[in-house]
Structure formats: C-alpha cells, structure tokens
Amino acid sequence: MTLSDANGRDSAFRFDYQPPTIRFGSGCADDLAAELEAQGLERALVVCGSTVGSTPAVIDPVTEGLGDRLAGVFDGTTPEKRLATAVEGRERLRAADALVALGGGSSLDVATVISVLAAGDRTHEEVAAEFAETGTIAVPDEGLVPIVTVPTTLAGADLSMVAGVTAAPDSSPVDEEIGGGISDPDLMPAAAVYDPELVATTPDAILAGSAMNGFDKGIETLYASNATPVTDATARSGLETLADGLRTFGDGDRGIETVETILEGIVLVQYGISRPGETTASIVHAFGHALTRTDTVQQGAAHGIIVPHVLAYCFEQDGVDARAGMLATALGVDDAADHGAAVVEAVTEIRDALGLPARLRDVDGPGPEEFTAVAEAVLADPFMANAPPGLEPTVAEIEGILEAAW
C-alpha cells in the first residue's frame, strides 16, 4: 500500500543523488590547485568563451588559482554549444587530466562534451553521424575527464549531469543545424567552485536572466511530481535566500554580499534536482524550451514572462497540488489570505525588480499565430512528466497561458 500526505502526494520516496564537492565563498578560486590535488588530479585545461578568456577580472583568478596545475586555456566556446567546438577542445587537452569549465552554461556544457569525446577514440565524423541520427552522444563507461565547474552566471549547469550541444551543417552529415544533448550520472562534475567575486563581474542583464532561470528551478522543485522531503528542504531554503538577494539586487545593491546571497540561494535550489534518470524541472522549463527552440529569446527572459501565468493556471486547477502554501512560506507571503495569488504577485515583483521583460510581445519570440505549435511542443516536452500531481493541461489551456503572457 502506498502512503500519501494530506495533499495526495506519495509520501514514500527514493532519493539518489551523486553530488560534487562544493567550494563556496569570495576568493575561493584561489583554492583550485588545492581542489585538484584533493581530487587526485594533476593538470587542468580551462574551457571558456573568448570574452571570459580576455577579461582579466575573471580569467586571472582562475589561472592564478591553478598555478602549476594549469595546462592551458581553450577560450573557443560560444552560446551555440557547437559539437565542432568540443572536438577542437578535445584536441587541446594534450597532457591535461582535468577540465575547469569557467563561465556560463554554454562553456560548462561544451566542457562536458569534451570530457565525453576524450573518453573514446571515435573520429569527429563518427560522432557527428551518431549525433545526427540519435540527437545524443553515447557516454563511455570509463575514461571521462573529470570536470571542475566555476560558474559566472546563475542558471544551473554547474550542478548537472546533462549538457546541450548543437551540430551545424559543416560538422554534421545533415543539411541543417540540429540540437540535442547528453545525459549520464557520470557527467556530474567532480567539484563546483562558487566564487561571488567572479559572478559579480557578469553584466547585470545576463545575471538577471540567469537568476530568473535559477529562481524558477526552486519554484518547480517544490511542486514537481517527483519532489522529495530532501529537495523540499533545499529548494525552500534556497528560494527564501534567493528572494531576499534578488529583491536587494533589484533595489540597485550590487555589493559582493548581495551577490553572495544570490549565489548561495542558487546552490541550494540546484542541490538534488539533477538526479540519475530524472530532474525536478517541470512545466515552466517545458515552456522555456518551446519558446526558445526556434527563436532568439533568452531562456531566463522567457521564464520570467511565463512563470506568473503558469503559476496562476496551476493554482486555479481543481485537484492539483501546486504547493501554494509551501511557496508562500518560502517567499515570505504566507500571512496572505490567498497563498496562490500572493505567490504570483511575489514572483512578478521579483521578475520586475530584475528588469526583465513582462510580455511575450516585447521579446524576439513566437507570435500568436505560432501559439498552437508552441503549446504542442510544451505538452510533448519530457519535463511535463514532472508537472504538479493532477495537472493535465490541454493544448487550448496552454495556448491560453501564452495568450495571457502576450
């Protein structure tokens, strides 16, 4: 017999998580050499984009922190996360036995693909053909190059066992760009180094968008159908911390203490959500995928626009447990008579304080004539499997959410 709580959720759970070592605090990039030594690693190739690689305030603390364990810097990553870029990075590994992934999600993902490519002896052509056929790359059972992530944004690729990748026509046997990803428990980084001083160098607009993406991870983790008491605890504490930090950030405070508070919240909401065979990403992330798959709207902006409307929809559905009370507690509005309405208002205020767009018509995304296709993509997204218990939206209802966000 299955035990359930008062809201109908299954109270029995299995929590399988393989976390990396976490180093946190201002200046902790200085400890990179010590962390490599603790992991039994000798030399690391730094993987980053050209902007990070040419910005002394970001790259210097990392290279100096590695000291004699620095094998080199590969600064060729791009937002497109090209398979060809990872192939080039593999050629740069040489004597390195570790990767330090520095920057945003693109660099962290490319470093993960480099690790996978380095574990086998397949040619670029063989890998490209496999990717074109399957949308993924097989992860070898052994030989993966350990990764230490050093994020400079807040979106969450640093505590993940998945990575996105694209292949352009010149590196693929097909005539159009294709996208896909890789996933395996062994892809979780060996260590994640969170230095607020590095994150503080990121431009406000990029930081705000990635913060919204990370903030939504906390929201989704609480109402996901596969939530556990472990992830409830970390996500609730993380959201509380994030809400404080993001409100302060929105008020114009860019001090290192504010960045440290936000970063602490991001670490907490990420902890435990990317697990073997599953994730707590849910309906908002499904919308994010659908809204950005054919348009250039940034995912954090898409999340910010859509999340209040998704929450309002979920709270209005009979028989759906979207954890309004727990969200209200995390966001400090649990004294409100209507928890759902108070949560929507709090999330909207935080989004607006970050200076993010509030309407789909204000970004380079799909228009109303495309809403049916977007709605179908939302419902087909794998993350919908984690939607709040009892939620069974129709295409028309998803279109309604998009129209409300327009």
Automatic annotation (TrEMBL):
Residues 19-196 form the Alcohol dehydrogenase iron-type/glycerol dehydrogenase GldA domain. Residues 210-406 form the Fe-containing alcohol dehydrogenase-like C-terminal domain. InterPro entries: ADH_Fe/GldA, ADH_Fe_C, Alcohol_dehydrogenase_Fe. Signal peptide: none annotated. It holds the Pfam family ADH_Fe_C. GO terms for molecular function: alcohol dehydrogenase (NAD+) activity; metal ion binding. It comes from the Archaea. This is Iron-containing alcohol dehydrogenase family protein.
